[in-house]
Amino acid sequence: MDTITIPQSMLPEDARFGSGPSKIRPAQVEALDRAARTLLGTSHRQAPVKDLVESIRTGIARFFSLPDGYEVVLGNGGASAFWDVMCASLITRQAACGVYGSFSKKVAASVASAPFLEDPIVFESEPGTYCVPERAEYVDTYCWAQNETSTGVQAPVYRIDGSREQGALIAIDATSAAGAIPVDISQTDVYYFSPQKAFGSEGGLWIAILSPAAIQRAEGIKRSCALEGARRWIPPFLSLTSAIDNSLKNQTLNTPSISTLVLLGEQVKWLNENGGMAWSAARCKRSSDIVYAWAERSAYARPFVTDVDARSQSVVTIDLDDSVPQAYVTAALRDNGIVDVNGYRKLGRNQLRIGVFPSVEPSDVEALLACIDYVVEHM
Q1: pLDDT, tens digit, for every residue of 190-247?
Q2: Domain ranges for the chain
Q3: Upper half-sphere CA count for residue 218 (Cβ side, 13 Å)
Q4: What CATH class has 26-272?
Q5: Which of 8, 37, 89, 254 has its C-alpha lying 20 to 30 A from 343's C-alpha?
Q6: How far apart are CA 116 and CA 313, in angstroms?
Q7: How far lies 305's CA from each of 55, 101, 130, 150, 375, in Å?
Q8: According to the UniProt entry, what is the EC number of this protein (predicted)?
Q9: For residues 194 and 197, what is the distance between their CA atoms, to the nearest angstrom?
């Protein structure tokens, strides 16, 4: 088919709508430029970088209004590495996992692969829905995703009835939720994420907000591993106690990407200055509502998630009619500079997936939808 040229006046000012990595604001790049002569290429164990890490930890604590005793901990490797950190340093014997998409499935797979843990109890539902684990005897850690990035489903976050009495932790994968979807951190013990979504940075870093119970659990597992005859081994890279100890010193166990820290620090500052979680979540909801309302009106598009309360306000998934091939639409958009609205490949649907994190302007979301309509009309 012939190339479609969208009129320049219709295009978004910024045409990045990725679900991760996501848009990095120009002000963050400017901060990176300022850091080029002062921070980049310097030791992460010296005051300038440690001051940056301290500002990040303090800013995140402010953003989430952390209860007393909770700590912000940083480590290298991204959220996928933290799945293995949980297996090595947080789950004592058995976990229960909510599985409702590719990433929540990967968490359960990591737990199942740990030879010193019992197989997880899996609570599973179809893509486009969510399934929070139910209380189960002998379970010591309940795991699920606040937002399933692959399907655009957001799930509630709460303490499962009876979990406190059994001494179980609540561990929430918040990679595409943190900073975009409201949460009461007191309902969690482990709230972890990577910064390449709402926090507008690069990958390769994980951030975990840990309750006193989670910190105590990690310390207890470390002690048990030191006992003679222990079957469990904690690789140094996956040691949560080491990550905690280093974070309290405002550093990471291994050398971090300082540019990632600079971008993250600038974004945390921007979010807090604009009103923190309440402002950020409202902005994301406004953008997601624009997309869902458009899809409900459309003759060729519809929201993938049918339960209105389960529709994500950070990653919006929209099904297209078979007569409107997603591959053609996204290719035409990319030809015009609009990028990363492809559906999740492994889901295998004729679908668009639109990241509406706080860095994305709602006006650009409106422009994107007008451009999609234009492409479909001129197919």
Answers
A1: 999 999 999 999 999 999 999 999 999 999 999 999 887 888 989 999 999 999 999 9
A2: 15-24+276-378, 26-272
A3: 20
A4: alpha beta
A5: 8
A6: 38
A7: 38, 12, 10, 12, 24
A8: 2.6.1.52
A9: 7
